[in-house]
Amino acid sequence: QQFDVGTDPPQKDDPLPTIVEETSPDSTVKQIVEELNQQLLNQEQETDQTSPEKETPKNE
Hints:
With about 60 residues, this protein is an all-alpha fold. It has a domain at about 25-60. It is about 95% helix and about 0% strand. It has 3 helices and no strands. The longest helix is centred in the C-terminal third of the chain and has 35 residues, at about 25-60.
């Protein structure tokens, strides 16, 4: 538990700032947004096709 406690505090202190500084926020945010948008579009297309199948169990 001692080494666990030692590794936890530094990660909880400032995990985002260090990561952001190293990965450059602009590019990272853009990539994340694009990925999320693509995932949302894919989910919407899938739900449109499978919407009747998903609605059937709900009605039951």
